[in-house]
Every structure is written in C-alpha cells, then in structure tokens.
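Section 3.1: Structural characterization of target chains.
Under the original work plan, the team committed to producing a structural model for every single-chain target entering the pipeline before any wet-lab resources were allocated. The record below documents one such target. The sequence was received from the expression subgroup and is listed exactly as submitted; it comprises 109 residues.
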Amino acid sequence: MRYIRQLPTVALRDSVDHLWCLADGPRYPAERILPTGTTELVINLAADTVAITNHQGSQRFSGAVVSGPYTRPFDIDAREHTAMMGVHFKPGGVSAILGVSPHELLGTH
C-alpha cells in the first residue's frame, strides 16, 4: 500500500489541511473509519463508486463524495477502495471551497 500526503498550495492553506492519495490499497472486506469531526472530499480512482455502511445501513455513491463530520464510525469494503484521493479540509474550510456548511454535512456523505 502506498499513501502520500501533500500540503496544499498557499492559496488553499486557509481551508485545506492536506491532500492525500492511496494506491495499491488493502484488499480486505471491512475497514472501520473512526469519527474525526472533519470533512473530506473523497474520489475513488479505481471505480465510479464509494460504498459505506453506517448506522443507517449500506449506501453507494458516485465515485466522488463529500464525507461530513461524523460522530459515529462507519465501515467501507477496502477491496472497492484501493485507489483513492482526497482533500482533508480544516475545520470550517469546506464552506470556503464548496459553499456548504459543515453543519449541513454532519453525519452524512
């Protein structure tokens, strides 16, 4: 597995904490994602889907999704997410970039 973390350009540093990329990701069926209270834009580079399972059941989204601040863990099938990239926003940073309040995204994808 290769994981790369990159600082954003100066123009984005007020809103974005870091950019990340995952290649040759794990191939096991379940990975628990713990709540961090942050917001991420996640893009699946290998498939046009992002699949999660949380307290509301299983959900499938298009290959790009915004994951809001979560208060509960959720699970992914790591086999479906082996090549990913994302934007990890600073607290409140999603508002400046996407025009959406973190509160509107609370507990959602």
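Helices lie at 93-98.
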